[in-house]
Amino acid sequence: MPKPLLSARYRVVVRDREGHIMHIEEAPSRSFILNFLYMLWIELNGNTTDSISSVNSSGQQITETVAFSQGWWEWCYGSAVLYAGIQVGSGTSPPSASSPYLESLILNGTGSGQLSYGSNSVTSPSISSNPGTMTITRPFTNNSGGSVTVGEIGLAPNYGSDAVLIIHDVLSPAAVVPNGGSITVTYTMQVNT
Amino acid sequence: MVVTSVNITKHRKNKDLEPGVYGYITFKVTDHGKVVLKRKRQMHSMTALWFLTLWAGYSITKPTLTAYSPNSFNVNTSAAFSYPAEGFWIVATSPYVGIVVGTGQQTKAPNTFTLASPVTPSSTGLSYGTLSMPSPTVSGNTSTLSMFRTFVNNGSSPITLTEAAIMVYCSAGGSTTVDFDAALAYDYISPSITLQQGQTLTITYQIQVTT
Asked: In chain B, which residue's Cα lies nearest the Cα of A170?
C-alpha cells in the first residue's frame, strides 16, 4: 500500500474547569485541502501576483490579493495573527477540496459560543531520520458562560497578516467544552522518505 | 482525573489509502519526437523543508541544513544555514531550481536537501529546459499541482540518470543569514534512465490531495 508523502495527525484533549481530562481524540488528519497546493504553488511562483482565500484578524473570510517578490508562509507571529496556526469551528460537514475555510469558525472571545484563543507553540522539528516530524499545539479556553461544541479543527499558516487554511478535519464525535474548561489541539506534521 | 471518553484511531479502518498528500513522477523519453520510454511511479520523498519554512518565525532550536549555495550545485555547509528559510520559490529559467537530475544516489532522509551527484547544465551535455508549473487543478475530491521540465542530451556520450529532485531557492530572511538552494523533494530514478545523444527526457511531478 503506498504511503503518503506528507501526512498529519491530530490530538484533541478536553478538560473541565479543574483541569481534569474529559475527552481525548486522536486520529490521522484526513484532509489537506486545495488551499495547501494553491499556497505551495503561489509560494513556488514567487513573482506571481495572485489571490488566495484567507481569514483576517476579525475572523472574516476574505480573498486576499498577494503581490510579492518572494514566498512567505509561516505558522504565525505569536499572537500577532490571531487566527493563524490552529483554528477551531462548530461545523460538522465533511471538508471539500475547494472550500478554503472552516464551515463555521469559532471566534476568539468570551461571548456566547466563543473561545479564547491561546498562543500556538511549536516544537523543534525532528528531521534527521524517518519520519520527520514537527508539532504545533494551541489551547482554547471557554469563558463564554456556557458550553461550546467544537466540531471541526484546522491548520492555517499565516500569509501576511491573514490565515490560510491548509488542513481541515471534522471531529467525530464533536468535542463539548464546558464553561471554564478548555480544549487543546495538537497537529503533528510528518514526512516519510 | 476522570476521563469520560477516549477515541484514538491509529490505523485506517479499511483498504483505502492512508490520508495525506501523495505524489507521482512521470518520465518520458523521446527520440526525434518518438516516445521510446514512458514510466509513472509514486513519488516517495518530500523533504522536511516544507514545514521547516512554516515555523521560521518561531524562536526555537533550528536545525543546520546542508544545502547548495544559490544558483549553483556547490554544497555549502556553512553554519549560516542554521537559520531556516522563511520562503522559497522557483525561477523557472534557472537550471539550479525546479526539477533537477543527477547521476548519483544516496540514502533518503527528511533532511536530504541535495542531490548525490547533480548534473551541471551544459549546452554540450545535458541542457535544462524552462520549468512549467500551471496552477493547481481540481477534479472531484482530488486537487493536483503539476510541474514539468525537459532535458536534452546534447553531448556525444550517453548520460545515465539515477536521481531527481525539486530544488527551491530559499530566502533565509535575515541580514545575518545566507540564502540557499535546497530540495523540497528527492527521489531515486529506479531503474535508471539512460539518455542517448539527441534524446529528450520530460519529467513531470504531480502532487495530489484528496478530501
From this structure: B211
Q: Which chain B residues touch A30 with a CB distance below 8 Å?
A: 19, 211
CA distance to partner chain B, nearest, from residue A82 (Å): 15
Which structural domain, as residue segments, surrounds residue B141? 21-210
What is the distance in angstroms between the CA of the first residue and the CA of the last residue of chain B? Answer: 36
Summarize pLDDT for A91-107 with one digit per residue, the tens. 999 998 778 999 999 99
pLDDT < 70 positions in chain B:
1-2, 9-16, 55-62, 77-87, 172-178
The 3 state secondary structure assigned to B67-115 is: EECCCCCCEECCHHHHCCCCEEECCCCCCCCEEEEECCCCCCCCCCCCC
Q: Does the bond joining A173 to the residue before it have cis omega, within 30 degrees of 0?
A: yes
pLDDT in tens, A67-100: 554 445 555 455 568 898 999 999 999 998 778 9
Q: Is the pLDDT of residue A178 over 60?
A: yes
Can you name the residues that pair with B142 across neighbouring β-strands? B139, B210
Peptide bond into A139 cis (omega under 30): no
Q: Tell me the chain A residues in contact with residue B21 when contact means C-beta distances shorter than 8 Å.
A: 4-7, 32, 36
CB contact under 8 A, B145 and A41: yes
| Res A174 pLDDT > 90 | yes
Average pLDDT, chain B: 85
Q: Which residues pair with A86 in a beta bridge?
A: A155
Rounded to an integer, the average pLDDT of A154-180 is 91
Segments making up each domain of chain A, as ranges:
6-191
Cα A56-A36-B25 angle, rounded to 5 deg: 165
Residue B125 has what pLDDT?
96
Domain count within chain B: 1
R_g of chain B computed on alpha carbons: 19
- For residue A72, which phi and psi values (nearest 5 degrees)? -165, 90
